[in-house]
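User: For a reading group we're discussing how well predicted structures match intuition. Take Cation diffusion facilitator family transporter. Before you show the prediction, I'll give you the sequence so everyone sees exactly what went in.
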Amino acid sequence: MSATERIAIGSIFVGLLVLGLKALSWWLTGSVALLSDALESTVNVATAVAALIAIRVAAKPADRGHPYGHHKAEFFSAVLEGVMIIVAALLILREAWHGFLNPRVLDAPLGGLLINVVASCINGWWCWVLIRGGRRHRSPALVADGHHLLSDVISSGGVVVGVALAVLTGWSVLDPALAALVALNILWSGWRVMASSLSGLMDEAVSEETLDTIRSTISDHATGAIEAHDLRTRHAGPKTFIDFHLVVEGQTTVEQAHDICDRVEQALRAHLPGAQITIHVEPEHKAKHSGVLVI
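Assistant: Thanks. Here is the predicted 3D structure of Cation diffusion facilitator family transporter, as C-alpha cells, for the group to look at:
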C-alpha cells in the first residue's frame, strides 16, 4: 500500500470521527450553524472515499486502453469534491433560511461548543497532514482534500465565535446568519478546488519554476547537441510529461545521439522522478536558434 493510500484511508477515519463529534455538538445545542458544520463534515467523509478510489485508480499501470496511464483519475476526484462541496453549501443555505424564519434559543451551548472546538482541532491537524503529504507525493486528490478541510476549519472557527455571540447577546438571528456565511465560504472553497483540478484536466503546463529546472537540466546535460526547441510539458497527478526536439550535429551517429538522449533523460528524472520524456532528434539544419541552447 502506497503512502498516499494510507493517508487517504486515514482521512476516512478522521472524517467519521469529526462527523460524529459535530453531529453530537448540533444535537446538544440545536444550532443551525453547528448543523451546517456537521453537514460539511458529511461531505468530508464522502470526498475522502472518492479520493481513495481515485488514488488507487491513478496508481494502476498503463495498459492497452490507457497507454499514458490513469494519472488523471485524481483530477476527476478533485472535481467531484468541488461539486459535492457546492451541494453541501446549498443545503446549508437552505437550513440557514429556515433558521431566519424560525429563530430558536440554543440549548446547552457551552458543552456543544467545546465538542465542536475539539473536532476542529482534529480537522486542523489532519488538514496539515493532507496538504503536506499531498505536496510531497504530488497527489492532487490529497491536496484538494486538505484545502477543503482547511476551509472547514476556518468556517468552524467562525461558527464557534458566532454561536457564542448569539448566546451572550441573545440575538438568535446570529445563528442562521453564521450558517449562511459558512455556506458562502464553502462555495468559494468548492470553486477553488474545481478550478485547480480543471486546469490539470486541460493539460496545463508545469509551473515556471519547474520549467526553468527542465531547461537548465537539458542545457547542462545535452553535451554534444546544439539546442533543444519546441519544449512542451504537462502534468497529470504525480506524473510530469516532457517532450522536445533535440538538434545535433550532422555527423553525429545514431548511437551518439541515443547516448545524449539517455543522459538528458536520466538527469531530468533525477529532478522529476517518474517523468515521461519524449525526445525527437533532428539534424543541425533544423536548428531554430531558439529555445534551450546547450552549454
